[in-house]
Amino acid sequence: MFDQITLANGLRVIGQKLTHVRSCTVGVWVKVGSMNELSSENGLSHFIEHMVFKGTKNRSARDIAEEMDMVGGQLNAFTSKECTCFYAKVIDEDLRLAVDILADLSLRPVFDEGELNKERGVVMEEIAMVEDTPEDLVHELLADVQYSGSLKEPILGTNDLIRGYSRDDMVTYWKRHYVPQNMVLAISGNYDWDEFIQMVNEYFDEFPNQKGEEKASEPQVFLPGRKAREKDTEQLHICMGFPGVPAGDDEIYALSVFNNILGGGMSSRLFQRIREELGMAYSVYSYSSSYTGLGVFNIYAGTTPENGEVVIREIQEQMKILLDEGMTEKEFISAKAQLRSGFVLALESSSGRMQSIGRALLLRDKVQDPEEALKKIDAVTMEDVSAIAARILSSKPSAAIVGKDAPRYLEMIGGVALG
């Protein structure tokens, strides 16, 4: 079902053909994110993601934008805690241009001093946006107290660090990580595999360094920490976190079903109770995040300070009821259907497929066939969901709150009510 090859230089290439579309999505995946940074390098992965678009040996920033716009393509990038991805979506006849530009971005950026100083300001504005967006800020605070080691570090870095990075810092870091053994090239859509590999060999032929150095891995541990940020906002932003499931663990399917029941959708218990019945929050939800060696299960609610105490109590009460009484069969069937449908719909586009196979090969060294994943979803039982719910909700939570009188509300969050 997948096309796959490792080139002579060590670059892994994977593809999934979709004959019913006329598009192709290509992504360059690099195993570098905030988890790969030393404390003194925090934010460099994301800063580099910005800088490669400011000019390469073959193209100016304007050239990059104009060439992609001339064919009506889409070009973008993102940085996460574990990886960086540059990707392009084009119609199939423009695949060569997409491969050419992506190779330029990832292998031949110039890191111009003038552009670096301008983009430094852009990144600092992005950091300021998080500070001014309480819902984003509360999740950053939660990460800071619930993770040990590098997982707690912000992807964007800090103003002090961004302000101090030089061109040499950036080039040294880039050369160390942008190496073939640390990268995956993924494609999905309507392509000819042999022609695609010829393009890859042509454009991905000169890496800045053939052998990089990886930061030594460190154990990641969940911490039940607490943090409050006093802020003059109209809403109180509440986050609770629990230990979850690490990436690659098949328990993620049972956890996903549980998530849909508790707070993952409009029919979930938290949404129905806190928003629909009480009208005390516009936004209330739960979600899981999985990384190498560690996963978390988090809950968020935004409410007025006047309703903060009731919302916190209701969140904990809904968790306690689910822990003590379990789920209904109707909830279980609906939650599994949501999970199954969401998985299938995410793979309907070339972009979704590229994201799935590229990330899996880069971070897990293997790609799961979609049919195998669907079988694992179907195999989840009510007992599986109850077991993981009991394990998660019986744990002492981490917590973060942003808003007026935040420390007072932080004291109301605890594990006693959960069993």
Write a brief caption for the model.
It contains 16 helices and 11 strands. With about 425 residues, the protein is of the alpha+beta class.
Structure write-up:
The structure is a single chain. With 419 residues, this protein is an alpha+beta fold. It folds into 2 domains: 3-203, 2-Layer Sandwich (Cytochrome Bc1 Complex, Chain A, domain 1), CATH 3.30.830.10; 226-418, Metalloenzyme, LuxS/M16 peptidase-like (Cytochrome Bc1 Complex, Chain A, domain 1), CATH 3.30.830.10. The chain is built from 16 helices and 11 strands. The strands form 2 sheets. It has a 6-stranded mixed β-sheet with strand order 1-2-6-3-5-4, with helices on both faces. Strands 7-11-8-10-9 form a 5-stranded mixed β-sheet, with helices on both faces. The longest helix is centred in the N-terminal third of the chain and has 19 residues, at 113-131. The protein is globular, with a radius of gyration of 23 Å. The chain starts with a strand and ends in a 9-residue tail after the last helix.
Per-chain topology:
Elements: E1 3-6, E2 12-17, E3 23-30, H1 44-51, H2 61-70, E4 74-79, E5 84-91, H3 95-107, H4 113-131, H5 134-146, H6 159-164, H7 167-177, E6 183-189, H8 193-203, E7 226-230, E8 236-243, H9 251-262, H10 269-277, E9 283-291, E10 294-303, H11 308-325, H12 329-346, H13 350-364, H14 370-379, H15 382-393, E11 398-403, H16 406-410
Parallel strand pairs: 2-6, 7-11
Antiparallel strand pairs: 1-2, 3-5, 3-6, 4-5, 8-10, 8-11, 9-10
Helix pairs in contact: 3-8, 9-12, 9-15, 10-11, 11-15, 12-14
